[in-house]
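Hi support team,

I've been running sequence recovery on a batch of backbones for a student project. Most finish fine, but this one hangs at about 90% for roughly twenty minutes before it completes. I'm not sure whether the input is malformed or the queue is just slow. I've pasted the structure tokens below so you can try to reproduce it. Let me know if you need the job ID as well.

Thanks,
M.K.
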């Protein structure tokens, strides 16, 4: 997560530490954290379903 301005946070998420996906821009730190966690959780779930 990167603070873009005083009230704007950009979020990128990764599962493997090398490939990042842009999640979005959020007006609060709380929303940015929630979005990043949700994105990573959903991505991990999708990868597990595809593997199984």
């Amino acid at each position: 997560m990167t603070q873009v301005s005083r009230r704007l946070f950009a979020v990128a998420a990764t599962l493997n530490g090398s490939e990042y996906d842009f999640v979005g821009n959020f007006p609060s730190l709380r929303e940015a954290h929630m979005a990043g966690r949700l994105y990573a959780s959903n991505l991990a779930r999708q990868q597990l379903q595809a593997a199984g």
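--
Follow-up from support: It reproduced on our side and the slowdown came from queue contention, not your input. The chain has one helix and three strands. No action needed from you.
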